[in-house]
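Revision sheet: structure tokens.
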Amino acid sequence: MKYDVIFFDIDDTLFDFGKSEKAALHKTFEAFGLPEGLADYRESYREISNVLWRELEQGKLPITKLGVERFRRLFEAYSLQIDGADFNHAYLKNLGKEIYLVDGAATLFDSLPGQRSAIITNGFKHVQLSKLGNSPLQNVFEEVIISEETGFQKPDSRIFDYAFSKLGLTEEASALMVGDSLTSDIQGGINFGMDTCWFNPGHKDNAIGIQPTYEINHLTELITIAK
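Predicted:
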């Protein structure tokens, strides 16, 4: 294999986060007496959440506060008398049960026998472990590195330092970072000196100047890169 270890992001790389989020939000709004809540508030929620995730990447906000804060801001904006912490707890519980693999994910790992692989994710620990543990990928990864557990998040190089230590790696060139986010996955890998692979199934334009080593539109394209 070309790389000793391939590191993968989870959401929107191996799992379809949009589908999981939609289903989990709908179930949670229903449980809190708002059956039309997904339609009424999803757009505002996504705007608020995107701002907070950018702050997380910039080191301005810990993930321990992000979960509650996004719903606190949403409910405040619409004058809804719902506790953000209670809603977030229920939402994350639902989110961990909504599992949708990205097309090609299972095939990819079946086609790379013997390839060491691991996860580096900025997600919530119990959600990501639940997704992996209840999916066909449950036994694929040697290590699952989660920002909530390490205290650092991509693109911070310290989460990659932690990952390299866990995997016993010493050379940056021995690993590849694969993910959908230019600012998190790809910039993080570049900062650390690793090769990177941008997973871009939507054929988005790259207008921000962050240049990955590779770009793929389907996960199975990674097979030829890795061998």
